[in-house]
Amino acid sequence: MASLNSRNGRIIVSAILLVIAVVLFVMYEVHQTPRVQYIANEGKVFGTTYHIRYEFAENLQESIGAAMQEVDNSLSAFNPNSTISKINEGSTQTDAHFLTVFNKSAEIYRLSDGAFDITVSPLIDAWGFGRNAQPSASPEVIDSILCFVGFDKIRLEEDQLIKTDPRISLNASAIAKGYGCDIVADLLDSKGIENYIIEIGGEVVCKGHNEKGEAWRVGVNTPEDDPAGINKETQAIVSGNLHLATSGNYRQFYFEDGIRRSHTIDPRTGCPVSNNLLSATVISSDCMTADGLATACMVMGLETSIEIIEELPNTECFLIYDEDGEHFVKKSSGFNKYIVK
């Protein structure tokens, strides 16, 4: 009997030790495994702000910052050491980011019949919207500048950028923010992240759902004279897995001799656009394309924009325009599937 009790005692002790070991192991694993949660990163890049939120077990701020800095080092006209700045100073050397954006810019240039053109930089400066710019846009000045504006005046030769005129200057601001969103999205995708939203200067990529398990929602602002960007009234709310960009003439402008000068320049005429389109929101298969097309729409105007967008696969637009002082909306045929309000 004593032997049986002793054996039972050993079994009980062994069971207790096993339970303790399992508990300690579980506690160790819980302590060692980071908790998956929604993480928010924000800051400044490309001369604007960014806000990123994603579900992951690790804060990727450093990796995200490094990815965006690579894009800045390639495409920012405000970074004197960037690839595009050096090209403007006479270099022919490109890089992978520059080549990707160059090729997409060439595609949108052809598609828009020249309404989108990254050689517009000298005109941006002449009208007072560029880096260290002083408005000096007399008809004579514009005519002289148009001699060295035009995507057909630049080309690639074995990944070297060749200009027909050394005065040609490039500005990728109308497409770089969208491209930056795509680069960050690629990074998050490579980590296996399923739920995120990326916003850089108003351009957006979102995937999956938010903390509440609901699809992300993005507002399309009502255009108002609002240089400070204080207005937050929305014209519509869209939802889903989106690559979205908005371009508008209602924030960046100035008055000269009683004339309102818009920051959107038509590279074909050399002058600020004068159509009644106030803002263009484009959804496409990538944010770089959406960004470039949104700018092209602002130059092309209402009817031409709708015609071109309707011909493109996986691309929709939401255009807000003015008629006799009132705001109206025109949408491509497939845009309604994204609207939730």
Folded structure, characterized:
By secondary structure, the chain is an alpha+beta fold. The chain is 36% helix and 26% strand. The strands form five sheets. It has an eight-stranded antiparallel β-sheet, with helices on one face. Strands 3-4 form a two-stranded antiparallel ribbon. Helix 7 (173-190) runs antiparallel to helix 8. It is globular and about 100 Å long. The termini are far apart.
Give the helix level as a range of percent. 25-40%
Count the E strands: 16
Structural class label: alpha+beta
Q: What is the alpha-carbon Rg in Å?
A: 26 Å
Key phrases:
341 residues; alpha+beta; eight-stranded antiparallel sheet; 16 strands
Task: Set down the secondary structure blueprint.
Elements: H1 2-32, E1 37-45, E2 48-56, H2 61-75, H3 83-88, H4 96-111, H5 121-126, H6 139-146, E3 154-157, E4 160-163, H7 173-190, E5 196-200, E6 203-207, E7 217-221, E8 234-239, E9 242-248, E10 253-256, E11 259-262, E12 265-266, E13 271-272, E14 277-283, H8 287-300, H9 302-310, E15 316-323, E16 326-331
Antiparallel strand pairs: 1-2, 2-5, 3-4, 5-6, 6-9, 7-8, 9-14, 10-11, 12-13, 14-15, 15-16
